[in-house]
C-alpha cells in the first residue's frame, strides 16, 4: 500500500521597519503562525531608498508588510524632501518591486493624509487633504501603491499608535507620572488610540485573507473602534495603572505650539473590514486594558505608583512630541 505524505507549505513574508514599534510586534505576531516564514531586515540591512536593494529583498517573498517610515512629524516640516524620499519615493520602488515579483503589499499609512476638519468618522474613500508635510509625504506613498498595485496593494491607515517597543504617548504619560504630581494634556484633538500588537494581529489577518483571495485590495482603516482625546487616553491609562486620573489636567492645543499643524479630528470609519468579511479592531478601551496588563506597561505603572509617596512637581506633557506616527 502506498502512503501519501502531505508537504506543509509556508508563505514567505517580508517585514520592513522590523525594529520599529509596529514592526517588532508584526514579527512577533507572524512568529506564532507555523505557515509563515518571516524575513525581518533592520534599516542597516535594507535601505528602502536603494531600489536595487529593495528589488533583491522582495524577490521570493509572497507578502510584504511595509512598517518602515519617516515618523518625525515636526522634522518632516523642516525636511519635506527627505521625508518624501522615505514615505513616498521609496514606497513607489517597493510597490514596483512587488509588482515585478508578484508579491502582495500591505503598506502602513496614516490618518494625517486627511484634513481632520469634520466632526465625523472619515470613510476609506473620503477625499484626502493633508495639513502638514508628513501627511503629504505619506500620501505620495499611498498613491504609488494604488497606481502600481491596483489588485494586490493594501493601504492600512493607522493613528495614535502605542506599544511596548518604542516611544509613544501611553509610555510617556506613565514615565512622567513617576516624576510629576500633575500633567497637562491636550483635550481638543480627537482620535483612536491603537495598540500596536492589536494592529499587528489585524495585519496578519488581512494578509492571510488577501492570500486566500477573500479581501479586495484598497484602503483599510487600522484604528481602534470608538474615539477619545489625548486627555481621555491619559486618564484611562492612569486609571488602569492604579493612578489617580485627576492628576491629568485638560489644556488646548495652543498650549503646545508645534512646527507642524495637527488635524483636530482624526477619527476613521471602518467600513472596509466588514465588506471584506473581516472584523474591525476592538474598541480603544479594550485594547488599552489588554496592553496595560502586559509586562512592559505594568512595569511602568508600578514605577509610577511607587513614586507617588516620594513627592512630585507639576508638568506639561506635549502629546505631539511623544506620539508615535506611522
TrEMBL record:
Residues 14-293 form the RmlD-like substrate binding domain. Pathway: Carbohydrate biosynthesis; dTDP-L-rhamnose biosynthesis. InterPro entries: dTDP_dehydrorham_reduct, NAD(P)-bd_dom_sf, RmlD-like-bd. One of its GO terms (molecular function) is dTDP-4-dehydrorhamnose reductase activity. Keywords: NADP, Oxidoreductase. NCBIfam families: rmlD. Catalyzes the reduction of dTDP-6-deoxy-L-lyxo-4-hexulose to yield dTDP-L-rhamnose. Belongs to the dTDP-4-dehydrorhamnose reductase family. This is dTDP-4-dehydrorhamnose reductase.
